[in-house]
């Protein structure tokens, strides 16, 4: 089994910090369909990348507030794959003030919800990197759930 070096951990932490900031700012952007590169295998339930694009385009705008993230480099490749866990709050829509006056108080639309999201990133071995530069990664798995 390959061992991780101190440099592996430092690079992974920088990559996770960079990824987290970039991902959520792109996701919250009004141009998120252009900012988020989406390519997935043809599998259900969304019927491929076009299905995911259709799903995301129908979602209301979002505002993520990341509270914390944790990164675990996974040995086996150089640079190592990354398991990133993110938690925070997300508001869908324009916030409570954007809801019509008739909206029930318990309606979650427009109110912050606590979320937890886990990403598995693998290094893009086809993308050249310079010494000391954070490797380029792509998302191989992404799970998200509301916890509050």
UniProtKB/TrEMBL annotation:
Any single biological process term in GO: nucleocytoplasmic transport
Keywords: Cytoplasm, Nucleus, Protein transport, Transport
One CC-aspect GO term: nucleus
Localization in the cell: Cytoplasm; Nucleus
Tagged with keyword Protein transport: yes
Domain NTF2 as annotated: residue spans: 15-146
InterPro entries cross-referenced by the UniProt entry: NTF2 (IPR045875), NTF2-like_dom_sf (IPR032710), NTF2_dom (IPR002075), Nuclear_transport_factor_2_euk (IPR018222)
PROSITE patterns per UniProt: NTF2_DOMAIN
Highest taxon, organism lineage: Eukaryota
Role description: Has a role in nuclear-cytoplasmic transport of proteins and mRNAs.
Protein name as it appears in the record: NTF2-related export protein
Biological source species: Multifurca ochricompacta
């Amino acid at each position: 089994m390959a061992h991780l070096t101190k440099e592996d951990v430092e690079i992974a932490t920088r990559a996770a910090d960079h990824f987290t900031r970039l991902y959520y700012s792109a996701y919250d952007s009004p141009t998120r369909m252009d900012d988020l590169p989406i390519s997935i295998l043809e599998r259900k339930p969304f019927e491929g990348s076009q299905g995911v694009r259709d799903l995301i385009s129908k979602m209301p705008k979002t505002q993520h507030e990341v509270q914390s993230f944790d990164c675990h480099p996974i040995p086996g490749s150089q640079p190592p794959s990354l398991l990133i866990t993110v938690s925070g709050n997300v508001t869908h829509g324009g916030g409570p003030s954007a809801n019509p006056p008739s909206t029930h108080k318990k309606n979650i639309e427009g109110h912050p919800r606590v979320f937890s999201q886990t990403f598995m990133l693998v290094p893009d071995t086809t993308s050249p990197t310079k010494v000391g530069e954070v490797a380029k990664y792509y998302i191989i798995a992404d799970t998200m759930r509301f916890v509050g």
